[in-house]
Structures are given as structure tokens and as C-alpha cells.
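User: Can you fold this complex?
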Amino acid sequence: MVKAYLGVDVGSVSTNFVVMNEDGAVIDCLYLRTLGQPVKAIQNGLRKLGEKLSNEVKIAGVGTTGSARNLTGVLVGADIVKNEITAHAVAVSNMVPGAQTIIEIGGQDSKIIIMRDGIVTDFAMNTVCAAGTGSFLDQQASRLSIPIESFGELALKAKTPVRIAGRCAVFAESDMVHKQQLGHSTEDIIAGLCEALVRNYLNNVGKGKEILAPIVFQGGVAANMGIKAAFEKALGAKMIIPRYFNVMGAVGACYLAMDAVQGKQTVFKGWKAAGFSFRPSSFECKGCPNRCEIIQIFENDVLIARWGDRCGKWSDLGVKTEDVKAG
Amino acid sequence: MLVSFPHMGELYLAVEKMCNLMAIPCVVPARPGPTTLKKGSELAPEGSCLPFCLILGNMQEALELGADTLMMLGGRGPCRFGYFIYLAEKILKEAGYDFQTLIIDRGHIYQSYRTIRNNTDASWSRLIRAVSFSWRLLACEEFLRKIKREGRAYAVDKKGFDEAMLYWEEKIKGISDEREIQRIEQEIFKYVGEMARHPEERILKIGLVGDIYTLLEPYANHGIEEFLMERGVSVYKEISVVNWLPNALFPWRKGRYRETLLQQAFPYLKNHVGGFGLESVAGARRMRELSVDGVLQLFPLGCMPEIVAHSALNRMCVQEGIPIMSMALDGHQSATGLETRLEAFLDMVNSKHKYAGPCLRNKVSSCIM
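Assistant: Here's the predicted assembly.
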């Protein structure tokens, strides 16, 4: 049995698992689609990994990250729950030592992290608009009925990329439709879209940032050759795409878990958690005008976690729902 | 006459007290929440900022409670805040509500006084006494909040600290005597002076700047102070009603106030840009003198003055080496995105604070969500 660490990154689009040994070598990794059902995706991943690895490795620590990090932490039993910005930075500082800039584009968000001497000195994340993220590319690919996998290759074949507004997903889409109706080739439109997304990224997320090489490009979108080429053209520098580019958040979570346990016993629930019955439910607390939406997680019908309250009164699992409904 | 007013943080305590002292019947609407936002956004013009939506919604809630008089601060200047009451009056009257306004603004004070006079038997002297006492009360209340947000991180016994703060909060609500206020303030001073403290260098200090409503109203800022305090951060915030209102209301204070701000904001911002833009830049500069580890700028989405301030702050953080993160807040219900950024910001500032030593702490940071 090898001692290993488990990192889980549950984002809007993908749910990623990485199992890493003590020396930081990746033993196995898994990239699944979340499909709007994080609980299912997490259990699915645990089952798959468990079938493969339960006789080979012993999990000594678990880290979770991504927008569903708290939920995942409760389901899997995590020794550390960390935000994805820190997780990505930790992964890169271990896997690509010396990197000064991280460009990360995922399903629903895109971020830039500036690192100097292995320490994060600056970062930014989009929220205003989803233009320029994986979901938008997905949507456009399916509108043009091009498989997302060949999207990038097609972009590289373009001769004269068309100009497309990249500031807003709605504008970008209407621009694309207009150009297509004018008779531009699909390749040129796709390449134009890639350039628009990169422009949008650099003008919004990357605004005012000192982007120095070596630049690491990661996240699901890093698989897209068209976007990579557009970045290289715009920045005049080579993009380094790490081997585990699409699961870097989970890689970071592994390193964080390694750091967090330090000889302590892990709280990992084991691969068997894949078979537990987890049931989330929610209700609106009427205790004050904040009207917090409280989430409750039941494991085999036992309440194991509750959050969403601003005041913290629900965090005590001893409080019964009936008690407070009256008050 | 039944007076009411929209919320802004804990301001209601003092205003309610003032009405009570003048024997003006008043009703306090519920604290802003999702219902308030829903009501406000339905009536507000498209693209209105979050503070306006919440204030408008809150006014509507007050009218639904039976209020027939709405009291609010007016003002002038490039920020929309000063026009809130004038605009809200129009919108609500068009929506079919019948009420009168008590506007606290230059040129309206006498008229507002007449309205009060016609409806109650409050005399000038009674009014002045009431205003002065509630002002004193507000100062005490804000003092307690300041102690709480700055001091909690230092307290070794957090539970004891929270209980003590809660005790005084309750006590302040019931005060009716100016000497009692003084006594409470001394008690608080004594408690903080004597409590067991963590050493200063282990505590992370974060300063908050931005527009006044977002900073004071916890619903508008997703309870950011509590969030930071829970993570052992000492929170600095200089904007308060007591610090700001006299400068906005009394013409003789305005000149000097602006001059000081301009001096502090130089050379990053050389003019008044409306709202609290200049305050944000000057405030961030002062935070630096208080040796805070990072500054958070909070503002409602689409707030022009703060967007101008944001550019100035960007430059300041590069040149002065202070991490600054700007966050635009709007009516989003989920705080996950906000928390992710805040956690990452704390991680970043913390690692600089811990490992890097003074040379790396001069490195730069800024970002906008």
C-alpha cells in the first residue's frame, strides 16, 4: 500500500480528482463533467477511483477546492478546504517552478494569478460576464455543430480571422451570426472568436497586471489550440501547458492536503462514501429579514452539515428545524 | 403623523431615539433583506445601483407599515445619493403611495422643522436636545462597533469578548442619559485595555474603503466584516456617519474637510470625483499609515465615483506597495464568489505577512471581481 493524497476540485462544469503520492507524482487523475449534479459527480468519481486504487493506495489526506468545495469537503471528509485561486497557485509553484504568470480559464470563470518567487502577489477573477470561458466556447461549438475537441484545430486553419466583439457573450454571438450570414468561412469565424476571447481576457481579467514569462496556461480551455495560439500572438510569449492542465486545481488540493495533515489522522471517509446516500435539502430561515437559504446535508438520513446562515445559529446541528420554525 | 426612514447600518437606533425624545410617533422598517431588494428593484429605474434599490425597497416597506412621513438625508454632488430621496418620492408617489417627506438637506431644514412643528408639539429647544443626545448616542454606538471590529482579532477569549460586546450593544439601546453614555464608553475602554491580547505582529489587518452605504449596511456587503472577523482579521474602517455627516451638512466644515482629503489622496486623485471616491483614495492612504496589510474597496456595481477611485487605487497599490482588491457588489444572492476572492486575498496577504518579510511586502496587488 502506497501512502497517497486525494485532491478534489468540483467546479461548475467539471469535477476533477487527483491521487498523488508523497513525492508529488500523480498516480491517477479523473476529469468528469459535473452536469449540474455535484453530489452525483463526486460519488461517481470516488467509485471509479476506489475500484481501481483501493488495494494499491492508502489515502493519508484529502483536500477540496472549487466552487463546491464546502459540499465536497463534507461528502468526502476533507482535511483542508481551500479556494481555487490558492489551489491553482500551489499546484503551479510545485509543478512549474519559476512560473510568474498563471492564466486559468475554466468552465464558468477565468482568472489570472501573478506569482513572484513562488508567492502570489496579485490575482484577479472574472464575474461580470461569462464571455471568454469554457461554457461559452462549448455553446458556440454546438451552435456551429463542431465537436469542441476539434474547435481549436479548426481555428488554426483560418487565413483571415474576422473581428468579433469579445466584451459580452451576447454581442459576441450576434457578431458571429452576422459574419456567418455575410459568408465568412467557419474557420475564420472561429479564429476570430478565439482572438476576441483573448482580447476580452487581457482587457478585463488581465487589466493592469504585469504579465511576465514564464506563463502557464491551464484549465479546461487550455486544450483549445486556437486560444493558445491567440494568447501567444497577443502576448508575444510561449504558453506553457502543464501535463495535468485540466486538473490543476485538484493537484493543488493534494499539495494542500499534504501540508494540512502533517502526521495527523485524516478525516477521509473512505472510498465507501461513494455508496452513501447523501441528500441535500434546503429551506428559508424566517428568523430575520436576511432570509438566509439554509442548506442541510444528510448522510444516510443523518444530518451531517448545515450552512448558508449568516448568523451561525444553524451551524449547531443540535438545533432542530421544528424548534426554530416556530420562532 | 407616523415617521419612518430607510435603514443604513445601525443608524436606526439613534434616529428612533431622536423621534422618541421629540414624542414623534415613528416606525422602523425591517432591516434590508431579499424582500427589500425585490421590492426596490421592481420600482427602481433600470441600472440603479444597489443602495438605491435597497433604500427604495425599504421605504416601500415602511409605507406598508403605515408610515405617512419619510425622513431621509438629501444632498448635492455628483453622486446619486443626494437625489435618492427626491427620486424615491416621485417613484413611490407614482406607485400610489401617499406621504410627506422630511428632508435633511441644506435649504430644507426649516421646512422639515415646520412639518414637525405642525404635527407635534416639539419646540426648537426640545428638537435640539433630542438631536444632540441621539448624536451622542450614535457616536457611542459607532465607537463600540469600531472596538469590536478592530479588537476582536486581538482578544484571546473570543467568546467572552463577543458576550461583552453584546451586553453593551443591548445596554446602548436602552440608554436615556448622557452621563450613562460616558460611563459605558469608559467601561468599554477599561475592558479593552485589560483584556488578554494576542501579540500585534500575528494579527492581519485589513482596511475597508468604499461608498458609505455599502460599508455600513451588512446586507449590501454580504456581512464582510463578520466574515473577516471570524477569520481572525482586525478590520479597519474609517467611514462612519459621525465622521462624515457634519462635513456634508455644514458648509463651514466642508472646505477644510475636502482640503485634507485632497492632500491625503495626492498625487493619485487631484479632484473631488463625487460620492465617496475621494474618501476611498484618501482612506486607503491613511490605512497605509495605520500599517494595514491590505485594503478592500467595496462599491455597488456601476458606481461611477468608485470606478474613478479604483483606477487611482490601482496606481497607489503599484507605487506604494499596498495590496488592494476592489469588489463590485450587486444584488447577487450567493456569496460564494465573494468568499473565494476574499479567502484568496487573505491567503495572499497572509503569505506575504508570514514568509516574505518586508522586501516582498512591497510587491503589488490589485484586482477587481
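Residues 76 and 270 of chain A are 8 Å apart (CA to CA). Chain A touches chain B at residues 67, 82-86, 114, 116-117, 119-128, 207-208, 210, 288-291, 293, 310 (CB under 8 Å).
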